[in-house]
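Internal tracking record. Fields below are filled automatically when a chain is submitted to the structure queue. Please do not edit lines marked as system-generated. If the sequence contains nonstandard residues, flag them in the REMARKS field before resubmitting.
Queue: standard
Priority: normal
Entity type: single polypeptide chain
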Amino acid sequence: MEPLQLANAMQTVRGIPWVFVPIPLVLYLLTVRYLRFQNVRKLERRYSKYLNDPYSMDYKTAFEIFKLTLRDVPFMFLFGTQWALIKSYGIASGTKLLVQTGRLTNKATVGKRSEDTGALLGEVLFESIDSKRGLVALSKINWIHGRYGSKITNDELVHTLALFVLEPHRWVETYDWRPLTRLEKVAHFIYWKEIGNRMGMQNIPSTLEELQTWTVEYEKTAMVYAESNRMCYDATVQLFLRGTPKFLLPLMEQVSSCFLEGYVRDTMGIPHPPQWLQSAVDSIFYFRAWLLRNFFLPRFKEFNMGIYKASNGRWKRTKYAFEPWYVEETLWSKLQRRLNFGNRTTTPGPEFMSQGFLPEELGPTEYIEKSRAPVLEHAKEMKLYAEQGGGVGVGCPFMLARR
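SYSTEM-GENERATED OUTPUT FOLLOWS
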């Protein structure tokens, strides 16, 4: 470490009485501070030609930058993405359809729906939309949306896309150990814009700033209270809190409401949490950011979603959120099931497709065979679209997306 860098690092680690700290610990803390910002410095050196005009990058470059960003702030980025989906429940026209399908509000299907949503987004966001898995996963998303035709409007899709862009930015800016740079924010937007193009979305705002303005204006009229909003929110939160002791449920439900802004709570009919609880939740996140910034070494490898190719040629997961879909059985899990020991809903088994998945199989089980051929054909057509440069090269959205 250069003397000037060492001095700068020492100046930036605040609130620590250095005179009382042993020298090895001082050196460790200074090393943490220096390495913590190493990734963002490398990122801006590597992509320096885009600093003045980040909108000149293509979606492939944007994907590279996005993966580097995730190395630094994976938890808050994904947490923000998760709550972006919940925030979309403030659009009454969209939640009415979700209630009609019943997959989100039915306790028997909400777990798989949530796991599949995470798996599909993971394939698209972490494998790139040009990879074989990414092409097929996005084609499956299009096939599922296509079943509902005009019941899902273009503006609803663009708004959800906007939330997937803007909410992670808000969460990282507010609660993580460092803010995102403009280069990172625009890269994230450009990559999602290409996803939107391949989903057949039209009239997506051309810049991040325009997207922010569009979202505010759209929500003024479209984000209104409806009972279906509350039903979708309650179903999702109850899934999150599954297994929570009954005596803690009221408190944890109030904690969940802390993750949404006041105007969004109103559209879902959610009581506002007491100010002391909101302050406590904020303080926990702020403390986490301070600890990461000053005491924890950064991640040196790319963020791993915990998906691997099994010997049977299918993909399996090592991590899950609510139910162990696509997680391999082990001797221990088999013993648990045989003895009926523990929570069966969190123990891998054949009913959770422990043999693994193929991207075209994600989604409702009853549609696996019906959708397989059209999804794979759709992926071939999307590959040709990608080879022509995607939305930028072709000059229009992928018009076969919602047929």
